[in-house]
Write a structure and sequence with these properties.
- With about 220 residues, the protein is an all-alpha fold.
- It has a single domain, classed as Up-down Bundle (Methane Monooxygenase Hydroxylase, Chain G, domain 1).
- The protein contains six helices and no strands.
- Helix 1 runs antiparallel to helix 4.
Length: about 220
């Protein structure tokens, strides 16, 4: 019976890793749509995000079934509860990708951002993709050191977000109010996406060590 439980727990962990990999693909696709004003890529990103949402529901259902039928305790209980929390984080990452792609769809055929901000947004997208890839690796390996390192990498995204806001609020900005609102939302979406990868690291660290702080 416990062998079956551990097999199902490993399957649940695999589901979470696949969700994170799908988030990685979605944020890369949404960023490409944003930079290229590509409506087909935007629609593809939105479809990917819908799949992530469905996967999240499956993962949540699997975690609840393990709690209800297997009555895990101690470290096993910690793993199942953390998986339940992670499924929510990963689903929200997909939702944020859908918001980015939705901006592209709403403004098409016009670009969401002015040319002076293309480099900043491109770097935000690259940082998000890299953090999602690292989070997926953490989920696959349970590496406590790599999990703890995700928090430090979030500093890059925070600085890029500040750069974006400073440009919007600066005297050289001429993009208009509607574009400013879109850009402020865009920056927030990327920032929150990165924050959720940090939560993946923290929750994985908790599963591995029993603490959210590195040793």
């Amino acid at each position: 019976m416990r062998t079956r439980f551990h097999e199902e727990l490993e399957q649940l962990t695999g589901m979470l890793e696949q969700m994170c990999l799908r988030d990685e693909t979605a944020i890369a696709t949404a960023t490409r749509a944003l930079l290229e004003t590509d409506i087909e890529q935007a629609e593809h990103a939105i479809d990917l995000c819908a799949h992530v949402e469905a996967m999240g529901q499956d993962a949540e259902d699997a975690a609840v079934m393990l709690l209800a039928l297997q009555a895990p305790v101690a470290s096993e209980l910690r793993r199942v509860v953390t998986a339940l929390q992670l499924s929510a984080n990963l689903a929200r990452m997909g939702g944020l990708c859908a918001h980015i792609a939705g901006l592209v769809r709403r403004r098409h055929p016009h670009p969401v951002m002015p040319d002076p901000l293309r480099e900043t947004v491109s770097r935000m997208g690259a940082a998000a993709v890299s953090m999602a890839a690292s989070a997926a690796q953490v989920l696959a390996t349970g590496d406590a050191e790599a999990a703890a390192a995700l928090e430090g990498r979030d500093d890059v995204m925070d600085q890029l977000h500040r750069d974006l806001l400073n440009h919007i609020l600066g005297p050289e900005y001429t993009g208009g109010t509607t574009t400013a609102v879109d850009l402020a939302l865009l920056g927030r979406y990327y920032e929150r996406f990165a924050d959720h990868t940090v939560e993946v690291g923290r929750r994985t660290l908790f599963t591995t060590t029993g603490s959210t702080e590195p040793e």
